[in-house]
């Protein structure tokens, strides 16, 4: 069940400290020009490097392993591989018995009966979102001229967050954030009533991204505090343009020709340097755990290109389904 | 794409003012005792009748059309039908040219190229959620002793809402609300990393319910404003119980053995009696529309059993997948 | 898993002696004119009545329960129901303990743990193919001008079979047969390499039809006895037309613009009036069983419209996927 | 649509002359011991080398790129890669304009609008079946003690085929064949009525294998020439064992506890050294084509392990679904 999509279908694989991570894209149309350079911008935006991100630096060079011939997609399954290089696996082995709070150490062990790869979070790692960003590059090409832009609305509850970010780093703590995404150029009529609504599909892939704990469309949770007379978006013209954007561009699960708008809530990174109480399953009692591995103080800083990629994958699937 | 689930698969159909609405459940295990009476409680909770709900009253008697023999499920596809009886279709025909703001009148016409059934919202109607509630009754039986309870947290932004609800009714306006759902008894280990996370699946089906515009797990959007040291749920014992519930019972997409907790934002009912500006596509200009059909002033009042049913359907699918 | 298709998706339900059988079609395009009369010809071809078919006569009147408005498909899920009327359920109860050879009595009980509806074969009954024929009527409309024609090649190994059929009836025995299907007007380029080849999809749905035990494309099993120089179809012109049809119109899983040709092997009806040895699971020993229920001496006689419907459903799905 | 399975899901990719081919297995249970050596036997059986097989020799060393940790499957997606090494791509470029009869050159170009990778058949190549065999190794481990054995029944219509094979090689011609597969140890109750019958699933994946043009279960096409009194398998004991195996171990789409038996027809290799007439799409007329690339005179010789792998993949999926 590691596949998303109906026509444009992505299947991802790999572990944080394994040799190779990758993604297969099935249903990619033939004839799309594609080079390694096309991936540079979005992969670069996702990379760590700025204040508040992990010291683990990876080259993140995409290997186009199948589905490409003479610079164009062929229509056959398109595979993109990445080699992991900067791995320090000794950091992680003890988390099998002493799971880190907030991480998938405990749940991964429960699910996979102790056979889970614990190194760097294994398959649960945010590192795997690299493959989503790669697939998103192709999805964006398919969607053009539809345009997807996401930006950070707030970090730690602030719209100007430099100071609290530096405090959090100094405190060995972490911060969450909210990212907003605007999508222009989606025509009216994409999506389905009920199970394949635009909201259902976008939320499905957005909640697949580690650390995301909330998704809202248009005025979202604020809508619950509005009256119908305030919330209803008045239709202005024959293209269906509305004065306000409370519906986030979606009525009855279907795009209405206005911009799609949604926001996601990103929890603070679970890895923090502050000692935390957890349970030692080997000796059967609570203990204090100090996490020393490399991590992002604020993963939200690196998430916008992942959000865009996820949205692009979901929408490219709709476009190929209808157009 | 009107199907949800991998093992416990539901496919719904019907229109608000058509003769019959229904749901097929594929993958229902054999040997579950089932009678019409089993449906009474949840169908009754979804019914209108209290202040703020529609004057359209339907009998909502489930017809078990297949998959049942001598009072037990057989394992073959189980079909539940309902006959619509209280329909006033003359109310709706003009909304084809003059779509109601907030409704799917415009998007439905765009999508279905003018062949959409406009009567009572057609297939987009909240009436179809009746079939979800029916399927949820069976899903809850499969899930037992896992227990799902939802309740209204606020209506129109208030935790005591009688007064503003009566005001909204008097004003011919409508209100939204927030519903919270608690699920006890889900063992650790359900869900998958990435595309089949618990959050992805729950959000997928929740956003299929008309009027839902936001979904958050655990502390949700509030998590974005917390520090990691506040948000991380400390693990207390060998069952994985945690002191706090900020993760909503889910780490890495997988249940951690604590209660699952989520909240949904429900927009105010789009149908209001107040005259609204919209666009008349026939004559090509804006005009004032007065909606006189029957509707709920606050659909959130009737949504808790629908939320529970949706969650039950998604979780029964996980249970049958693993257990 | 009672659903077939990716875009044009059919989900069927019902039992031979239940009240209602039916099919939901998801993904049917809007705007297709559709009336009850459109179903008459193919439903009539499937009906019993001629020599060698069952004395059970059903009206087989299709009820268009959803997805239709003012004579056109709406794009919402389209549901077709049939009421069973001519049922004699007392005939079947003893087959729970004493399964009929060749039938699904034993396997159904194993699978469904004794909760299976045994009446008339329950959900396993060939009666359910009525719903496939109904869905096929719509699929054929979508496919036009692509044309699907099937005919009986042989019954009981003979191309003129009247005499052996009357002998089999007189002997209370049954006969199998071979049906061939020719499909004209499929353009080159439908199908996918590997798992979604035309052959894979057609065979999938054909083997879903009770009694079918073999499927071959083009020269099929005879191809295994040919040389490459004999089997290769020489390409004649820019449309890809070939001199011979050994590939059955499919290369690499993809249509080549020639007619699609396949044949199916239909086993003799399992129900025969001749006493047969079987096992009585209640008393734990072999015993002689005499089957007295109503049945077809040669089900192959009624299968051509079912074959066509199955092929039409699979191909309509491809057409909607690509066109 | 390059994925097969519901629980044990395989997605394959790659081209005959690309750098890498591979397969992702999703839904593989954790804790299965797995080493490179486990693949040796089946990969070796598929290899060329004996009389009548291609001179292209590849090392076929499996690279376990994800889903493995310390010698055991982890439960995360398991990826197996192979590097292509012995490629002569200059052989193939002219087949874009002058398609080889029997190959997917024409259909691939039609489907993929001229962007298809023509080298060695690209993604259509039988080389990709290497990845199926690799996935089959794991599927067989999951299925144990269920045992799958296939063998060649006939080549070119003969059960002793050395002489005609050498003649075909001398004539630069090719031969087809028939392979039979016996599967022991499948318990009664696997499979579903209708669309997920055992026959439907096995046939689906079998017809995904290049060169297979017919599939039959039990007595198959011969059943069409039998009487019911001959064909019905008499049940002998409480395990459901039958005297004969005409049903191939499947009734109503569900395993009956006897051996599963099926046969596949394999067409003669399309590549032959004899000059053949085809159409030159560039100059617009028929011409004589001489194919000089490396190929198998009889691909059927190498197909038994591919057949077994395909069957294992389909049945492992059923086992994980039910057990």
Give me the number of helical elements of chain A: 7
| Biggest interface between chains | A-B, 107 and 107 residues
Segments of chain A where pLDDT lies below 50 for 5+ residues? none
The residue-averaged pLDDT of chain A reads 95
Output the CATH class name of chain A.
Answer: Alpha Beta
Overall number of structural domains of chain A = 1
- Strand content of chain A is 15-25%
Topology of chain A as a string of helices (H) and strands (E) = EEEHEEEEHHEHEHEHEEEEEH
Main sheet strand line-up of chain A: 1-2-3-7-4
Distance between the termini of chain A: 26 Å
Looking at the structure, what is the overall shape of chain A?
globular
- Helix proportion range of chain A: 10-25%
Structural class of chain A: alpha+beta
CATH fold title of chain A: Chorismate synthase, AroC fold
- CATH level 4 superfamily of chain A: Chorismate synthase AroC
Annotation, overall tally of beta strands of chain A: 15
Oligomer: homotetramer
Question: Measured on Cα atoms, how large is the radius of gyration of chain A?
Answer: 21 Å
How is the biggest beta sheet of chain A arranged? Answer: 5 strands, antiparallel
Task: Give structural notes.
Four copies of one chain form a homotetramer. Chain A has helices at residues 40-46, 105-111, 129-143, 162-170, 198-206, 228-231, 304-322; strands at 3-4, 9-13, 20-26, 63-66, 68-69, 72-73, 78-83, 147-155, 177-184, 212-217, 250-251, 254-255, 260-266, 276-280, 285-289. Chain A is α+β, with helices and mostly antiparallel strands and 323 residues long. The longest helix of chain A is centred in the last third of the chain and has 19 residues, at 304-322. The mean pLDDT of chain A is 95. In chain A, β2 (9-13) and β3 (20-26) form a beta hairpin. In chain A, the strands form five sheets. In chain A, strands 1-2-3-7-4 form a five-stranded antiparallel β-sheet, covered by helices on one side. In chain A, 22% of the residues lie in helices and 22% in strands. β10 of chain C pairs antiparallel with β10 of chain D, so a sheet runs across the interface.
């Amino acid at each position: 069940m590691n596949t998303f999509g109906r026509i444009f279908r992505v299947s991802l694989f790999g572990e944080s400290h394994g040799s190779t991570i990758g993604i297969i894209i099935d249903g990619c149309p033939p004839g799309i020009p594609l080079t390694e350079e096309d991936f540079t911008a979005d992969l670069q935006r996702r990379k760590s490097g700025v204040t508040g991100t992990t010291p683990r630096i990876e080259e993140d060079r995409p290997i186009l392993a199948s589905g490409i011939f003479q610079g164009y997609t062929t229509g056959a399954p398109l595979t993109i591989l990445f080699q992991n290089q900067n791995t320090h696996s000794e950091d992680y082995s003890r988390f099998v018995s002493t799971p880190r709070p907030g991480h998938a150490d405990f749940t991964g062990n429960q699910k996979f009966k102790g056979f889970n790869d614990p190194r760097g979070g294994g398959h649960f790692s945010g590192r795997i979102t690299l493959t989503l960003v790669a697939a998103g590059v192709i999805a964006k090409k398919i969607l053009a001229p539809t345009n997807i832009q996401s930006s950070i609305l707030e970090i730690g509850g602030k719209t100007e967050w430099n100071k609290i970010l530096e405090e959090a780093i100094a405190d060995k703590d972490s911060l969450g954030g909210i990212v907003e995404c605007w999508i222009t150029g989606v025509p009216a009529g994409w999506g389905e009533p009920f199970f394949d609504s635009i909201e259902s599909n976008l939320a499905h892939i957005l909640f697949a991204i580690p650390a995301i704990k909330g998704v809202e469309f248009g005025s979202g949770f604020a809508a619950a505090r509005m009256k119908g007379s305030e919330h209803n978006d008045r239709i202005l013209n024959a293209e269906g343009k509305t004065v306000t954007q409370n519906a986030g561009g979606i009525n009855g699960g279907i795009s209405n020709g206005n911009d799609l708008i949604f926001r996601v809530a990103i929890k603070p990174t679970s890895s923090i340097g502050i000692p935390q109480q957890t349970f030692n399953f080997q000796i059967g009692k609570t203990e204090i755990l100090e996490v020393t591995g490399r991590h992002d103080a604020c993963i939200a800083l690196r998430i916008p290109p992942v959000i865009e990629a996820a949205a692009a994958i979901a929408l490219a699937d709709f476009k190929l389904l209808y157009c």
